[in-house]
Design goal:
Blueprint lengths: L1 E12 L2 E12 L3 E5 L6 H8 L7 E6 L2 E2 L5 H5 L2 E4 L11 H7 L13 H13 L15 H14 L4 E5 L7 H16 L3 E5 L3 H7 L2 E6 L2 E7 H4 L2 H8 L3 E5 L6 E5 L9
Parallel strand pairs: 3-8, 3-9, 6-7, 7-8
Antiparallel strand pairs: 1-2, 1-4, 4-5, 9-10, 11-12
Length: about 260
């Protein structure tokens, strides 16, 4: 089953082409990573999926319906988007932030409900935030803060979740903490798409990868089909060796030195 698809999509900023003729299908219930060099259009691709940017060519469909047909409220019930650097209101607590995820499901005559309470409680439990509910967001560590944002997205209860570099600026321990939390979301049946720079984490956690470079898709498919020496060398204009991790045989990318140095 296809959750979201792009057909012949293109986008330009002023006269600069960022992406052209992009086509792919996202399978339901998968963790899909978008990888590629800086400035290659990864975040632009994600923002078009979230309807924050409108493609100048092509069509995007969500559950078989053109994205352009969705109102923003209807879209927020089907798809959730977490930008790279979300900003929380001053003084907001973890519990208040997670509750905000239920906003798309409420209206003038449909205020806080039992279903809202259930979804918030489930999200808090899944993201292991029970001991932090009264803490202000500003007091949390990087990993805790990102788990709180993920809980808010989870409480929104959408089929598709888009995450823009959710592990950026985190140390290795917090990166693992966040990636494990994202993996939990996929285990619940969500379709999660994330922009990610860490190829090692992408290789270990993602089911499929979309490699973006040169204004379009360079490769797409299972991790082992995308993370190959020729593909990584081409995508990043470098030379690498790819080894297998001892624990699970996940690909490990080791950059080669580009020049020989001598010490006199």
């Amino acid at each position: 089953m296809t959750a979201l698809s792009m057909t012949g999509v293109g986008f330009s900023y002023e006269k600069k082409t960022i992406l052209k003729d992009v086509s792919f299908n996202l399978s339901k219930g998968k963790l899909v990573g978008i990888v590629g060099p800086n400035g290659g259009g990864k975040s632009t691709l994600l923002k078009m999926m979230a309807k924050h940017l409108v493609p100048q060519q092509g069509v995007i469909t969500l559950n078989g319906q053109p994205l352009s047909d969705y109102s923003m409220k209807a879209l927020a019930k089907a798809l959730a988007f977490l930008p790279q650097q979300p900003i929380s209101p001053a003084g907001i607590t973890v519990e208040q932030l997670v509750q905000y995820g239920r906003h798309p499901h409420q209206g003038w005559f449909n205020q806080w409900s039992d279903e809202d309470a259930v979804q918030v409680s489930n999200a808090i439990g899944k993201m292991k935030l029970n001991g932090l509910l009264t803490q202000p967001m500003t007091s949390l560590s990087g990993g805790q803060r990102q788990r709180a944002w993920l809980a808010m997205i989870l409480a929104q209860d959408t089929e598709v979740i888009l995450l823009d570099e959710p592990t950026s600026a985190l140390d290795i321990g917090h990166q693992i903490e966040v990636m494990e939390s994202i993996h939990q979301m996929v285990a619940m049946g969500k379709t999660v798409v994330l922009v990610i720079h860490d190829l090692a984490a992408a290789a270990r956690y993602c089911d499929e990868l979309i490699a973006i470079g040169g204004q379009g898709i360079v490769a797409t498919g299972p991790v082992t089909d995308v993370i190959t020496e020729p593909m990584i060398n081409k995508l990043y204009n470098t030379q690498v060796d790819i080894l297998n991790a001892p624990f699970d045989d996940a690909p490990v990318i080791v950059p080669r030195r580009q020049a020989a140095y001598s010490i006199d």
